[in-house]
């Protein structure tokens, strides 16, 4: 049966608890107000009217400035967030590489955490037992299987999360940036596995700012700005649409102006040395 993703008119509102402005007349009054005032709940719209269709063979890039809603959309597509409005239909097994440390229990052992995370991925105990040696070997934690997770370094926990999350091939891969953290040896292994998993996936949805990699991997691009779709189409057109957005921002223009000044100063200094 064919895999697909179909999102129609998706909107997501999240609660935001806000405290009214308080006048700071004195330390005591400020402390009393902080202890007695109650924040009121407001809702903030993160996504609005987002539609996306991906069929087998599609590799979709999510493009947008920081805070545009890319990671939130990935979480909606993964099933972690339920949309406030609209519908999401997904056919096929999903794997979301969004937060490699999510779901770990610090006081459980490495071995126990493998089984806990694998169960959350839908794997049976027997399947996980078969995968355990390769997960420990890939993460370089064979000698730490019975150690509490809390005693591991952040890098070791990251390697473990990656090894578990990529231990099986899924129909649909949802990724927030291409993996590139860790020591050089592990990064090489991780990139090779990521490439293999992407090739084996029927559909890939990837959020990234690496234009060269997106051109090589993706055929489609969806551009988000302030939680709304501003472009969805072939990847090169999508990259151009995204560039037009961020190149119009005051921050970009100010940075370009600073770079131009730096180049002029460098050229002037070079000319003086030559004279």
From TrEMBL:
GO molecular function: ABC-type transporter activity; ATP binding; ATP hydrolysis activity
Natural source organism: Arenimonas fontis
PANTHER family: TEICHOIC ACIDS EXPORT ATP-BINDING PROTEIN TAGH
Keywords attached to this entry: ATP-binding, Nucleotide-binding, Transport
Protein name, per record: ABC transporter ATP-binding protein
GO cellular component, one term: membrane
Domain ABC transporter: 31-251
Similarity comment: Belongs to the ABC transporter superfamily.
């Amino acid at each position: 049966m064919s895999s697909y993703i179909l999102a129609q008119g998706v909107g997501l509102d999240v609660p935001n608890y806000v405290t009214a402005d308080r006048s700071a007349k004195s330390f005591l009054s400020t402390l009393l107000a902080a202890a007695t005032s109650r924040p009121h709940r407001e809702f903030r719209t993160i996504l609005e009217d987002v539609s996306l269709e991906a069929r087998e063979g599609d590799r979709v890039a999510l493009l947008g400035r920081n805070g545009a809603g890319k990671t939130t959309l990935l979480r909606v597509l993964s099933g972690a967030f339920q949309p406030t409005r609209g519908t999401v239909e997904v056919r096929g097994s999903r794997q979301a590489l969004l937060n490699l440390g999510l779901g770990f229990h610090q006081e459980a052992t490495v071995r126990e955490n493998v089984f806990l995370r694998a169960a959350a991925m839908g794997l049976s105990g027997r399947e996980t037992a078969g995968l355990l040696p390769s997960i420990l070997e890939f993460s370089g934690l064979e000698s730490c299987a019975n150690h509490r997770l809390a005693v591991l370094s952040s890098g070791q926990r990251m390697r473990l999360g990656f090894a578990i999350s990529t231990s099986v091939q899924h129909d649909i891969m949802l990724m927030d940036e291409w993996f590139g953290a860790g020591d050089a040896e592990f990064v090489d292994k991780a990139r090779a596995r990521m490439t293999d998993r992407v090739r084996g996936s029927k559909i890939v949805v990837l959020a990234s700012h690496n234009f060269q990699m997106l051109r090589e991997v993706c055929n489609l691009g969806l551009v988000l700005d302030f939680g709304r779709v501003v472009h969805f189409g072939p990847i090169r057109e999508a990259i151009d649409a995204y560039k037009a957005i961020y190149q119009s921002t005051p921050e970009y223009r100010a940075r370009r102006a600073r770079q131009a000044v730096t180049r002029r100063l460098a050229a002037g200094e070079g000319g003086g040395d030559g004279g």
